[in-house]
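Intended use. Records like the one below are meant for learning the mapping from a protein sequence to its folded structure. Do not use them to infer anything beyond what is encoded.
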Amino acid sequence: MLENNFPLIPKLLLDELNQRYPERSADPDWADREVWIKSGERRVVRFLNEMYRRQNENILDGPVGPLNRNSGQSINL
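Structure written out for the chain above:
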């Protein structure tokens, strides 16, 4: 999948999904089917977390190149 074609992920949506579907271990009382369902839910949230990270990591790599934070220089557009 091309990351450039993936829609931007809103931070508020990602925060809500992480709250509703947190990382956690399976409960011994859960049926096998429930373990698989919860695992699949979390897998989607992990994927969105990674896409969000990549989108925000690359946000400074725009058409003018990466921003050099240590130089103290600003980029004129």
